[in-house]
Automatic annotation (TrEMBL):
PANTHER family, sorted: BIFUNCTIONAL UDP-N-ACETYLGLUCOSAMINE 2-EPIMERASE_N-ACETYLMANNOSAMINE KINASE, ROK (REPRESSOR, ORF, KINASE) FAMILY
Similarity comment: Belongs to the ROK (NagC/XylR) family.
Entries under InterPro entries matching the protein: ATPase_NBD, ROK
CDD domains: ASKHA_ATPase_ROK
Pfam families in alphabetical order: ROK (PF00480)
TM ranges: none
SUPFAM superfamilies: Actin-like ATPase domain
Protein name: ROK family protein
Amino acid sequence: MYILFDIGGSKTRVAASNDCHELQGDPIVFDSTSNSEADTKRIADAARMLVGGHGITAAAGGVAGVLDSERRRLLRSPNKTTWVGEPLAKQLEKGLGVPVFLENDTDLAGLGEAHVGAGKGYEIVAYLSVSTGIGGGRIVGGMIDAARLGFEPGHQIINPHCRICPDCVVRPIESDACVDLEGLASGTALEKRTGKKPYEVTDKEEWHRIACWLAMGLNNTLVHWSPDAIVLGGSMICGMKGTVVSLDEINRHLRELLTIFPEPPDMRLAQLGDFGGLYGAMARLRQDMKHRPAQT
């Protein structure tokens, strides 16, 4: 049996699979905490419940934040500051008793979408998750693209008062400074501006601003990554109560901004919801099995 996990800023999901193609039963979901040792122990406990006495061969999963080049511990994580520097891979391997493959959580969600979701069939997929924060990953040939410390498109600098898009004339924000994309268009940023949860915000101008800023961020991402498709996910895009950012509006602004390419790539809505990272973990384990030397 194989163990899959997704450690997010607010929720942790754990699942099992017999063959790394399908989930075995329903995942176990629990609230994430500020204590990495306690949460990794809960992952191990959930894994034992899921396998029901069967052996565990290997495990893979994602965690929110920037991992070191060896993918063993967090270097930065806005949502999990107390986990930074902790020996996460070692803690998980101790609890599970098997090798553990760690990746950034958004990278794994993008990998899942590229294999069995909205990005299936495309060679180069740009995945962007717009939720509590904003993260993204580049999938090439069905694999997470190589990078020293991963990709962080949510932390690109955006000028919120930019007038380059004719239809992107938006109500100014309080600060005149440039801000990163996450500081403008994430759920956390929206709540900070309005004092409301994103699903409570009914002001159309707020959603218009977010669509404009996301189009600016996507323009920058596209000219650097040049993908065949963009897949957008996260609670600010899909799976949220009430209003979501309109893909049609984002695409309309993007077409006004993107002048160097004849047209933008296909823009798709993520299909795997909260379980994208678990499907990505299965793909990651399949890749390890494919490249593992044969036993003699």
